[in-house]
Amino acid sequence: MHMSEQRLPLPARGRRWLAAALAVSSGLAAFAAAADTTVRVLRVEISDVEKQYYADVVAEYEAQNPGVNVVFEYIANEAYKTRLPTLLQSNQRPDIFYSWGGEGLRDQVEAGFVRDLTEEMQDGWQDLYPESAVRAFTLDDRVYGAPLYATVVGFWANTALTEQAGVDIEAIETWEDLQEAVTTLRESGVTPVVVGGQDGWPMHFYWGYLATRLAGGEGIEMAKEGANGGFEGEPFVRAGELLQAFVELNPFQSGFMATSYERASAMFGDGEAALHLMGDWDYIPSKERSMTGEGVPDEDLEFIRFPRVDDGVGNDDSFGGMNGFAVTRDASDEAVDFLRFLLNEENQREAARLGIFVPVAHGSEEELDTPYARKVAQILSESNFHQVFLDQALGTSVGATVNDISGDLALGEITPEKAAAQVEEAWMFR
């Protein structure tokens, strides 16, 4: 050994000083590492009320965990769907991202972008939620996300306009009832329905919900296995036929295929149409987007179920989302810890108290304050099967096809048979 490599013994005082110095150095390094921990959360654009809710949750978490900074980032709905795959492949990927579960989540898992949360969830975490909520984020018996809330699609109704036209909203129970209401509204000079056809997914609510009514959630699962003609089967063709017959009644506003979801939401808030087929989440955004910022007054606002369809085996099923968050593969343990905090029982109860959404945590429904939220909770509790949006449940590529054919059907640019064949083809070659 060279002299320069010899390790000479230190006097006791020197050893104590070195140990103290190393301890301080180690502590500073640990503090620096902790202080540098940032958790980035990517979320679809939401109302200002919900943003404040998240800000309050973050403030409480950061107060309890001074070494962690949590940052929420928001992207508009349609842009989110197109940008997320690119972001997940980049070094700008978030630590936590908003997810609708289903085949879209499977695509991300199989691409290696998502962290497996099975072990963490089994430590009492998943016991907070109904089994159906956890199932939406479970693939091959492994859990890859945690549920935030369930959503239901239904018709928002401005009763001031429907009553003006002599339409009884509560009497709309069947598809024929809806068609009659549309005709009556149009004849009275009221625009019956507003839709954001430009974005694709709002129009898919019609085709997707009609397919769910006709095939049922179980029938859609069977179609995925190729049973009964797959997505070329009779229920999916008939869904297109019913949508096209509906459009022939001239239900929508002028230029509906050039209208974004956000604009349609504002138009309903401004009283420009009697009905808006949209998720329950639109309660606050529709008000905020209106010219007055107040939207349709609560006393003139109703939320009604999507109507039943003759011979539909899914008439008792619901259609909407089971929304939550997933964690990216290389995210820190702090990211998982924050997500668990965000979705704990107390924070979900607070969301219910604020009327932001209908949380899925057990007992949180007790805090629901608005009649719309309670109606959604009732629909979910009475539902035989909650079918997740088809543009999410069938995966990104098939979902894009579903959105495209829905708009094409509304414009009369495709036959119901061809539309169903395109969905089947997309599913087969996904």
UniProtKB/TrEMBL annotation:
- SUPFAM superfamilies associated with the record: Periplasmic binding protein-like II
Location relative to the cell: Periplasm
Q: Which UniProt keywords apply?
A: Signal
The signal peptide here is: 1-34
Q: What is its main location?
A: periplasm
Give the family, as the similarity comment puts it: Belongs to the bacterial solute-binding protein 1 family.
Protein's UniProt name: Carbohydrate ABC transporter substrate-binding protein
